[in-house]
């Protein structure tokens, strides 16, 4: 457990696979998105800060914040992109160069990232990382392994202390974090190893699982051994008597092309955070609702005597920033969809074969779950605005396409013939007659797309695009209703506003006609 | 001026016009008559290229109507339909001047032409500021006629132009139209199902049935020497005030 990665040897072995220092963000995007990304990313490109990512749970965010502030305190320029998602999202972002570093666990790397290679121990892991063009800091000093947890009262009532005893209680209800449910080193492996018979197994957010236990809706859930809630909710960790879970030593994994000075700074964390310290930091962030920036700053002051400046959180400024992010996502995706879908609708109207193909594709896109689409897009577009804008763009296509087509099809034949009989060119007919007559239908398509977009854009926070989804996500993680409302209320208001604005436009159009 | 040579057309696979040949001299007014679905409206659409014949040829003046000549030839024809076909989002004036504006005619030319036409169809200019929805049926048809006449076409194609109007207005407009045709010396192809109206406008009537021309000639020819039973029945079906053949 306390075994740490030989940092110097991994430095020597680190191979740069030619990703280069230049961030590839936005390189393969459609022109519109690309142009926008250049504007939005201008400050990033200028200063080239080290970008730290973190997963969507408190410990990862705290570690990400510690890492970021440590680098800033050591004279580097650093930026924290928090709560980006799960392991796959973070690793893809790292491989693409969207982020440079993020906190990870050895067990996760071995079982998830390098599942296809034989990585029996931490030495082999170090080599596997090098082969992948990555570098890892020394172990931070604690292991955050998976454990199964139950309410103490419930466990004592049933007399369960070890995982193997679960076999005798097939009626127990199990609720696991979605990631645990799918991971090889999670539920599938655990069930096989212990021959567990439980049928009632469901996936849910890690943060909601505690409340499930407390309310009696669940009996058993997966926990991290450094979770602050273990004490707070009076839970017991069941002993892993068949030694199924591997070691999950925390470390910072980086691209091999980060500057040596950055690596040296990160190695200052080696062995500085033990399990008790991490649990305490988690408790401060999660139970005491102390902002992660404060928690990290406090730790760095106490442990590394680093005078880290944590910025004061301004609620008004936060809401304003999220509004800008949200509007940017919705606006850019909607505009791009308008630019694509209206001409496509016109072409489809004149060519039934194009219509069939276009509608088939748009229909399929519409049925894809937003979350799945976002994750599919990450390997191509990385994290942040690009996949979010792209997904929203794809969702906006169908309503606009359909309504453009329907608006044109609804024009009475005699009016289309009258226009043709006047000897107007096809373009003139389209511009002066057909599009104005279809405008109401097209406008209502845009309205539908806009309203759907405002709601769906809250999912953008899952891939690091920010917006109103960010406080919702953080609020769910911290069980903070006020924070959830801070995202949900403006998102709902914006949707209503879009609805009202477009309806007014449509009504105005009717008056004109 | 208009020459249709052995023209046939079908909607999907249902024949609408079969082997029709028809020639209209410059300045002549011809009325196409026949029961609903006999193909008379389709013949008009064929003449202006809104539908295309499956076989046969159509000539307008000295040019053959083909997809590549259609736009130019359409500008030499005016087309008026029963409902007027006015674009609801444009004011009456914009409806009238649309084609001229797309042809980059000067504002002064357009202005003068609109004045001339408003006088010709006897429509107060103030009404041209209205949208079609705010015009009466008769006013809308006068606007539609102005639109058709805007580019001073040699040919007018009228598809039941008065069919939707109430009898009083219709009566007045019939008078106005006939004097207008005579004054302008246009070549007119008029579709109507009303034999009396046809005879009022045109000397030559063309009676159609099931996509074919059954008989051509004056009202007297049709009434007195019908070539088949159908012609006799069609003429008899036009009831006059006293329940019988109407005097013309």
Class by SSE composition of chain B: alpha/beta
- CATH class of the largest domain in chain B equals Alpha Beta
Total of DSSP H or I helical runs spanning 4+ residues of chain A: 23
Structural class designation of chain A = alpha/beta
Looking at the structure, the CATH topology of the largest domain in chain B is Rossmann fold
Strand content of chain A: 5-15%
Q: Helix fraction of chain B?
A: 25-40%
* DSSP helix fraction of chain A: 55-70%
Order of helices and strands of chain B: EEEHEEHEHHHEHEHEEHH
Give the domain tally of chain A: 3
For the biggest sheet of chain B, the summary is:
6 strands, mixed
**Distance separating the two termini of chain B:** 28 Å
How widely separated are the two ends of chain A?
Answer: 75 Å
Using the coordinates above, name the CATH class of the largest domain in chain A.
Mainly Alpha
Q: Count the strands of chain B?
A: 10
Overall form of chain A: elongated
Strand content of chain B: 15-25%
Indicate the CATH topology of the largest domain in chain A. Answer: MetI-like fold
Largest interface: A-B, 18 and 26 residues
In terms of quaternary structure, the protein is heterodimer
Structure description:
The complex is a heterodimer of chains A (513) and B (248). Chain A has three domains: 7-25 and 47-143 and 247-304, D-Maltodextrin-Binding Protein, domain 2, CATH 3.40.190.10; 146-238, D-Maltodextrin-Binding Protein, domain 2, CATH 3.40.190; 315-512, MetI-like (MetI-like fold, Orthogonal Bundle), CATH 1.10.3720.10. In chain A, 59% of the residues lie in helices and 9% in strands. Chain A is built from 23 helices and ten strands. Chain B has nine helices and ten strands. Chain B is globular, with a radius of gyration of 18 Å. In chain B, strand 1 and strand 2 (14-24) form a beta hairpin. In chain B, the strands form two sheets. A six-stranded mixed beta sheet of chain B has the order 6-7-8-3-9-10, with helices on both faces. A four-stranded antiparallel beta sheet of chain B has the order 2-1-4-5, with helices on one face. Chain B has helices at residues 40-48, 67-74, 92-102, 107-120, 137-149, 167-184, 195-201, 219-224, 229-236, and strands at residues 2-11, 14-24, 29-33, 55-60, 63-64, 77-81, 155-159, 187-191, 204-209, 212-217. With 248 residues, chain B is α/β, with parallel strands linked by helices. Classes of the chains: A alpha/beta (513), B alpha/beta (248). At the A-B interface, helix 20 and helix 21 of A face helix 2, strand 6 and helix 3 of B.
């Amino acid at each position: 457990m306390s075994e740490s990665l030989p940092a110097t040897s991994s430095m020597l072995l680190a191979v740069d696979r030619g990703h280069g220092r230049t961030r590839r963000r936005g390189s393969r995007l459609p022109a519109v998105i690309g142009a926008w990304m250049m504007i939005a990313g201008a400050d990033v490109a200028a200063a080239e800060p080290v970008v730290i990512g973190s997963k969507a749970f408190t410990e990862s965010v705290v570690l990400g914040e510690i890492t970021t502030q440590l680098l800033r305190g050591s004279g580097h320029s650093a930026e924290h992109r928090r709560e980006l998602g799960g392991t796959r999202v973070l690793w893809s972002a790292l491989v693409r160069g969207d982020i440079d570093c993020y906190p990870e666990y050895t067990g996760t790397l071995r079982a998830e990232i390098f599942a296809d290679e034989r990585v029996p121990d931490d030495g082999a892991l170090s080599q596997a990382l090098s082969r992948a063009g990555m570098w890892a800091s020394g172990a931070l000093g604690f292991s955050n392994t998976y454990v199964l947890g139950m309410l103490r009262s419930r466990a004592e009532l049933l007399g369960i202390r070890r995982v193997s005893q679960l076999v005798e209680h097939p009626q127990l209800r199990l609720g696991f974090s979605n990631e645990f449910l799918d991971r090889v080193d999670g539920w599938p492996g655990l069930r096989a190893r212990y021959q567990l018979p439980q049928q009632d197994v469901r996936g849910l957010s890690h943060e909601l699982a505690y409340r499930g236990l407390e309310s009696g809706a669940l009996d058993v859930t997966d926990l991290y051994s450094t979770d602050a809630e273990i004490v707070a909710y009076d839970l017991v960790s069941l002993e892993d008597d068949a030694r199924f879970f591997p070691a999950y030593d925390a470390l910072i994994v980086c691209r091999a092309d980060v500057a040596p000075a950055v690596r040296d700074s990160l190695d200052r964390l080696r062995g500085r955070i033990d399990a008790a310290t991490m649990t305490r930091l988690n408790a401060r962030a999660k139970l005491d609702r102390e902002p992660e920036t404060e928690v990290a700053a406090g730790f760095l002051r106490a442990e590394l005597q680093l005078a880290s400046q944590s910025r004061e959180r301004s609620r008004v400024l936060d809401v304003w920033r999220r509004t800008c992010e949200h509007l940017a996502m919705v606006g850019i995706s909607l505009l791009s969809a308008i630019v694509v879908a209206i001409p496509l609708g016109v072409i489809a109207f004149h060519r039934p074969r194009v219509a069939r193909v276009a509608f088939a594709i748009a229909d399929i896109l519409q049925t894809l779950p937003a979350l799945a689409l976002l994750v599919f897009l990450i390997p191509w577009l990385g994290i942040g605005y690009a996949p979010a804008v792209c997904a929203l763009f794809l969702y906006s296509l169908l309503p606009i396409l359909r309504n453009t087509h329907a608006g044109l099809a609804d024009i009475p034949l005699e009016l289309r013939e009258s226009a043709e009989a006047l000897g107007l060119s096809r373009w003139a007919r389209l511009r002066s007659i057909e599009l104005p007559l279809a405008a109401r239908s097209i406008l209502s398509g845009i309205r539908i797309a806009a309203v759907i977009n405002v709601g769906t854009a809250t999912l953008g926070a899952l891939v690091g695009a920010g917006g109103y989804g960010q406080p919702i996500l953080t609020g769910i993680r911290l069980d903070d209703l006020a924070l959830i409302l801070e995202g949900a209320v403006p998102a709902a208001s914006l949707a209503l506003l879009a609805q009202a604005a477009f309806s007014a436009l449509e009504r105005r159009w009717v008056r004109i006609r | 001026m208009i020459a249709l040579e052995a023209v046939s057309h079908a909607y999907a696979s249902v024949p609408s016009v079969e082997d029709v040949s028809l020639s209209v001299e410059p300045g002549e007014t011809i009325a196409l008559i026949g029961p609903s679905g006999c193909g008379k409206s389709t013949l008009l659409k064929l003449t202006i290229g809104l539908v295309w014949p499956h076989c046969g040829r159509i000539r307008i003046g000295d040019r053959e109507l083909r997809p590549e000549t259609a736009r130019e030839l359409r500008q030499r024809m005016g087309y008026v339909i029963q409902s007027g076909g006015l674009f609801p989002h444009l004011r009456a004036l914009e409806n009238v001047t649309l084609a001229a504006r797309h042809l980059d005619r000067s504002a002064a030319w357009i202005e003068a032409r609109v004045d001339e036409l408003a006088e010709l169809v006897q429509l107060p200019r103030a009404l041209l500021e209205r949208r079609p929805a705010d015009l009466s049926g008769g006013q809308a048809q006068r606007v539609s006629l102005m639109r058709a006449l805007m580019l001073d076409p040699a040919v007018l194609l009228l598809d039941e132009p008065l069919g939707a109007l109430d009898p009083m207005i219709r009566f007045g407009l019939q008078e106005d139209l006939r004097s207008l045709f005579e004054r302008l010396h246009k070549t007119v192809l008029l579709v109507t199902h009303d034999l009396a109206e046809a005879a009022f406008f045109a000397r030559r009537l063309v009676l159609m049935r099931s996509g074919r021309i059954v008989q051509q000639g004056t009202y007297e020819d049709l009434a007195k020497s019908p070539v088949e039973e159908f012609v006799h029945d069609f003429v008899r079906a036009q009831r006059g005030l006293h329940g019988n053949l109407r005097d013309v």
